[in-house]
Task: inverse folding
């Protein structure tokens, strides 16, 4: 029940949690005290001394007041402790995710990672804040009360102690089932979360092909499967809680019965019988509280599994390099690079050698699936080549610190991702601490200023998740502006203008001409008009370099490139 | 024709609607579960009844012992006492099972409804909300309702019956005993209402913040590679922490308030017990109560509060439940942008598409995205929409799918206004390949068969061939059974687009919308797809949106748009010669 992973996480909240334990133990003490005072009151009252009885009652009332304060303090302390633990954990998880990089995220499902980052972290709240302190409180409080009972009536104390132990131990009988049930529940939760997120994000597509109802039927089946997982787990969990309740009830009844029997046989005084009556109920409070706390916090156990899993994941590439880069337009060389995606049997790149000359624009063209975007992934070190190497100004990429590499590259990827926020926020994402004037300059260069100015709130218009409130070409131009603003010596454009009109594309290309002088540029495009002005063209086909020369030369050579161009012109004539 | 109907305008810039819980909305879900609910409540009452009986029996035994009965005479009572424990535990277990079964059924039902409603609200509503937030409602908010359905109904009934029963017994023992117990019981019952207003505000903030934290996490995960390449890790971590910080602050206040209520409940119960004991003792002193009855009074004083305590415990979360329900109802009650107005399908639809003076805007305070657009696509023909980025091409495509209704004018298929077609018929008539390709985390085959699960493997293959996808698919490690990853992450951009085209073709709908469906394809594949579509033989009436001259040239007619208006219509070649604007668009 006490989980190693979770115990290892509580450091940031330890002060508050210690306070919660202290308050909890004191609360137990006030319960015991109250029972004893009430016993005294009854003894005195029945004995005829009403004043003494009232005095004892007032003492009990004072304890009640103190306890109210302690109960509140405990609640607050445990909340604060859990909060600190969660905040630290969440930050750690996100930072770890950052080191795992895009490779990890593209393999995992967003919904699954999201569950770990949000739901799992929330799930440990009660475990850390309530259950863990309760373990100490119950042990200390339980021992205290049994000690008091032992002082009054050893026989009852033994009986109570034994049944309390049985009650506490009973759930262990079902440990395996509990764990399986919990795991099934949490796996179901994670899957359903991921499915719902997928559904919400994919609904426009589902509707466009008329598949929303059928998809809904599948989702519904999963929701009902989750109903079964939930119920199965609840059955196990209530049976185990039932055992605790059974022993607690049996113990209380037996203690009372034993007390009465002992009195009847003259072994116990009236006062003691009363004390037994009140205290035996208190004696089971630690057990039932512990059980309740466990039930409140048990969701943390499978959550901890997910958390540990994420934290244990190792990045696809090791960030061990230390070489620094000069920050001038780099020369990038692919030396006989081969790369196969995990799980695939054919290499996506197969012995590719090519050079991006410093300060020049190199275009990579070729059929869909040729491996163009893969080149970029290797250049950004989402993965390392299976064979050969990539050099950045003569330095093997593996010897360059990842942060150093990234600060030298700006990218417009094939799948544009914009963040929820304003137009300005999104352009400014390219570089920290930029002025509005710089943002606007970048927007102008990306041919975006005109349409942004027409939006209802201009640069302060909210664009919605992923920029859904913009047209496809508008999103792409914001992504270009963002990359231009980053002002990195290597600029990579992967199909950056596929969704904008030819005229806008021309404008962007012309703007690029101006910045090109002091940058190395890598352009990937299917529309060959985009690459006609490049200094150098590489034609990639099925993971291999088919041709490589200046565009003019390639045209006259009459190879693959010339054929592609002819094809497009024939289409456009 | 129904052109007079005022369309619902999507308000793309309204943040969120005010949250309010429809009275009884949650309870109405219980109607089909009446039987289970009644059984659960019955078991809950039995549980408490057995417990109370056991306690009273215990008290009576103690009382008899005090009156000097011999130990042997107590034995049958003691055995009965032990025997009562088992049915109590069984009743408690049955209650829990029944209540949870009921609750989880309702949750599954709610999740189902939530999805269906979201489908009806797509895409308008999705523009205003974030997917993480909506996902949090479908999962976490719905799950919170379990507290309501499984943990608060039976306690409510038990709390409404056991304490009064204890009170009656107390009054019967002695009116003053009852009078001493009454105030505390009443006070206890009011605890959940003390801080209601504050608690409601806290809970609402908490649930909102939870949704926001999920939304930020989605951005953090899906935008990870942008974050890394632009070196904005700190910025993104700060955003995530800010969202969770808000959640923490809200829940801290909530817990502190809960602590106050918990302390109050505990204190009231203790005060009640002390008061009733003291009164009983003074009654014993004046001789109006037998000494052995003090024990019974103690038991009653304890039991009157137990059900109320557990009620206070669950009702402490009542405001959270209400806030979660309000968030769910915000989706369930949102008015859809389009409503189904026709019940009966139209007999036969000639696949001829007409845009007639169509005007539309995305929000009341936004400019028209398209205005007075008119053009016709004769059956089996292809019309291309051309124009600057942002000219309104995709908007026309969505209008043809009836994602929105035009604010003026009408879109017709075969002479029928789209509003006169049932949704089913419309969906089976028009399919689209949207500008943003979306593949699901399933196999290639399942992705293709989404819209037609009954398609045979041969049909799937045929569609893939037409979309020039068959060759690369067969080269994948598991062919058509290869998983494509989230959003198709395991494929190249152009491969994703080809699968999207194949998926649309497989539906066999007569009207096809291709919104930049080949923007990421090389010229060869594009030409091949075009040829294959032609070879499929004029089966489709097609609306294509394209920027490439190569695509525009192959269309029968090009509709040139600018700033939401149609400026010219004609064949590519004619437009090239006569329209300076068209030449400018193509940079000629
Ligand atoms: N994450 C991945 N896992 C497995 N295979 C992948 C993955 N990403 C790409 N591939 C495969 O690697 C090959 C090259 O893909 P890449 O994305 O580099 O193509 P591309 O040249 O950019 O094509 P396009 O022009 O269509 O974008 C393709 O066959 C693709 O299916
Ligand atoms: N959901 C939305 N909310 C508000 N405005 C929108 C929304 N979607 C599109 N717009 C605006 O409506 C106009 C037309 O957009 P549309 O997507 O139809 O353009 P498009 O012609 O398809 O452009 P592109 O070629 O770039 O895809 C644009 O100015 C765009 O900013
Ligand atoms: Mg690519
Ligand atoms: Mg568009």
Result:
């Amino acid at each position: 029940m006490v989980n190693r992973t979770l115990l290892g996480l509580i450091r940031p909240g330890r002060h508050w949690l210690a306070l919660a334990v202290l308050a909890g133990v004191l609360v137990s003490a006030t319960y015991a005290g109250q029972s004893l005072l009430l016993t005294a009151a009854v003894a005195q009252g029945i004995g005829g001394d009403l004043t003494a009885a009232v005095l004892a009652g007032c003492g009990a009332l004072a304890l009640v007041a103190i306890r109210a304060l302690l109960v509140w303090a405990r609640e607050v302390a445990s909340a604060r402790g859990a909060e600190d633990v969660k905040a630290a954990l969440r930050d750690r998880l996100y930072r770890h995710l950052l080191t795992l990089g895009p490779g990890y995220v593209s393999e995992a499902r967003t919904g699954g990672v999201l569950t770990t980052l949000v739901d799992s972290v929330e799930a440990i709240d009660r475990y850390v804040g309530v259950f863990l302190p309760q373990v100490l409180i119950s042990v200390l409080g339980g021992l205290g009360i049994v000690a008091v009972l032992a002082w009054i009536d050893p026989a009852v104390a033994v009986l109570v102690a034994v049944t309390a132990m049985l009650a506490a131990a009973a759930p262990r009988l079902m440990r395996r089932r509990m764990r399986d049930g919990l795991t099934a529940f949490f796996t179901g939760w994670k899957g359903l979360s991921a499915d719902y997120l997928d559904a919400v994000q994919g609904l426009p597509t589902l509707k466009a092909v008329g598949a929303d109802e059928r998809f809904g039927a599948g989702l519904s089946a999963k929701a009902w499967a989750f109903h079964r997982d939930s119920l199965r787990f609840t059955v196990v969990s209530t049976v185990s809680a039932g055992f605790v309740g059974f022993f607690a009830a049996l113990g209380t009844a037996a203690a009372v019965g034993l007390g009465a029997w002992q009195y009847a046989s003259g072994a116990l005084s009236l006062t003691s019988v009363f004390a037994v009556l009140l205290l035996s109920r208190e004696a089971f409070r630690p057990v039932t509280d512990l059980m309740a706390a466990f039930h409140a916090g048990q969701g943390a156990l499978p959550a901890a599994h997910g958390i540990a899993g994420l934290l244990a994941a190792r990045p696809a590439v090791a960030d061990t390099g230390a070489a620094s880069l000069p920050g001038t337009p780099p020369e990038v060389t692919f030396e006989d690079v081969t790369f196969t995606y995990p799980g695939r049997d054919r290499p996506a790149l197969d012995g590719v050698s090519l050079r991006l000359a410093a300060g020049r624009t190199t275009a990579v063209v070729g059929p869909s699936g040729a491996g163009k975007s893969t080149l970029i992934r290797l250049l950004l070190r989402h993965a390392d080549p299976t064979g050969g190497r990539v050099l950045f100004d003569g330095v093997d990429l593996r010897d360059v610190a990842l942060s150093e590499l990234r600060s030298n590259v700006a990218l417009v990827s094939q799948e544009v991702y914009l963040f929820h926020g304003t137009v300005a926020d999104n352009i400014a994402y390219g570089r920290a601490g930029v002025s509005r004037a710089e943002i606007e300059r970048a927007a102008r260069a990306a041919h975006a200023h005109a349409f942004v100015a027409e939006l209802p709130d201009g640069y302060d218009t909210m664009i919605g998740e992923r920029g859904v409130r913009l047209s496809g070409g508008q999103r792409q131009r914001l992504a270009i502006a963002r990359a231009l603003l980053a002002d990195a010596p290597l600029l990579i454009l992967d199909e950056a203008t596929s969704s904008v009109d030819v005229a806008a594309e021309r404008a962007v290309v012309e703007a690029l001409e101006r910045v090109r002088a002091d940058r190395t540029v890598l352009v990937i495009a299917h529309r060959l008009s985009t690459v006609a002005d490049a200094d150098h063209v590489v034609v990639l086909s099925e993971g291999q370099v088919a041709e490589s020369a200046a565009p003019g030369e390639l045209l006259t050579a009459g190879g693959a490139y010339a054929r592609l161009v002819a094809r497009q012109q024939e289409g456009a004539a | 024709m129904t052109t007079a109907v005022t369309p619902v305008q999507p308000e793309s810039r309204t943040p969120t609607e005010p949250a309010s819980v429809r009275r009884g909305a949650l309870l109405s879900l219980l109607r089909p579960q009446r039987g289970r609910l009644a059984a659960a409540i019955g078991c809950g009452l039995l549980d408490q009844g057995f417990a109370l009986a056991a306690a009273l029996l215990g008290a009576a035994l103690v009382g008899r012992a005090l009156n000097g009965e011999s130990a042997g005479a107590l034995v049958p009572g003691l055995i009965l006492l032990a025997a009562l424990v088992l049915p109590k535990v069984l009743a408690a277990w049955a209650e829990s099972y029944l209540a949870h079964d009921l609750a989880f059924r309702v949750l599954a039902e709610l999740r189902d409804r939530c999805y269906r409603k979201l489908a009806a609200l797509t895409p308008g509503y999705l523009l205003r909300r974030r997917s993480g937030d909506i996902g949090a409602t479908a999962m976490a908010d719905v799950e919170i309702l379990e507290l309501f359905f499984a943990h608060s109904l039976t306690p409510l009934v038990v709390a409404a019956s056991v304490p009064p029963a204890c009170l009656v017994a107390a009054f019967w023992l002695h009116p003053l005993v009852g009078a001493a117990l009454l105030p505390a019981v009443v006070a206890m019952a009011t605890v959940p209402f003390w801080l209601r207003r504050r608690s409601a505000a806290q809970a609402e903030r908490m649930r909102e913040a939870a949704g926001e934290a999920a939304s930020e996490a989605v951005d953090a995960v899906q935008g990870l590679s942008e974050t890394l390449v632009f070196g904005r890790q700190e910025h993104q971590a700060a955003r995530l922490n800010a969202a969770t910080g808000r959640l923490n602050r809200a829940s801290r206040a909530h817990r502190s308030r809960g602590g106050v209520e918990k302390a109050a409940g505990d204190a009231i119960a203790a005060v009640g017990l002390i008061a009733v004991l003291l009164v009983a003792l003074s009654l014993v002193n004046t001789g109006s109560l037998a000494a052995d009855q003090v024990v019974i009074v103690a038991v009653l004083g304890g039991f009157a509060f137990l059900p109320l305590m557990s009620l206070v415990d669950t009702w402490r979360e009542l405001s959270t439940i209400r806030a979660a329900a309000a968030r769910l109802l915000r989706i369930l009650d949102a008015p859809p942008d389009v409503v189904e107005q026709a019940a009966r399908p139209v007999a036969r639809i000639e696949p001829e598409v007409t845009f007639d003076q169509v005007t539309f805007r995305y929000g009341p305070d936004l400019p028209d995205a398209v205005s007075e657009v008119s053009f016709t696509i004769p059956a089996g023909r292809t019309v291309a929409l051309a124009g600057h980025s942002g000219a309104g091409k995709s908007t026309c495509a969505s209008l043809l799918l009836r994602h929105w209704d035009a604010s003026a004018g009408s879109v017709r298929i075969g002479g029928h206004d789209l509003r006169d077609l049932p949704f089913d018929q419309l969906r089976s008539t028009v399919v689209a390949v949207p500008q943003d390709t979306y593949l699901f985390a399933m196999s290639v085959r399942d992705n293709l068969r989404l819209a037609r699960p009954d398609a045979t493997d041969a049909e799937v293959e045929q569609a893939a061939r037409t979309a020039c996808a068959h060759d690369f698919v067969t080269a994948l490690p598991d062919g058509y059974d290869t998983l494509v990853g989230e959003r198709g992450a395991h494929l190249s951009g152009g491969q994703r687009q080809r699968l999207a085209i194949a998926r649309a073709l497989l539906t066999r709908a007569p009207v096809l919308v291709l919104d930049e469906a080949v923007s990421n394809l090389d010229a060869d594949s594009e030409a091949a797809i075009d040829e294959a579509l032609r070879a499929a033989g004029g089966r489709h009436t097609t609306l294509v949106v394209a920027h490439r001259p190569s695509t525009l040239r192959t269309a029968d007619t090009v509709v040139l748009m600018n700033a939401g208006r149609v400026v010219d219509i004609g064949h590519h070649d004619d437009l090239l010669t006569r329209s300076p604007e068209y030449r400018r668009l193509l940079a000629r």
About this structure: The CA atoms of residues 535 and 548 of chain A lie 11 Å apart. The first helix of chain A runs from residue 4 to 7.
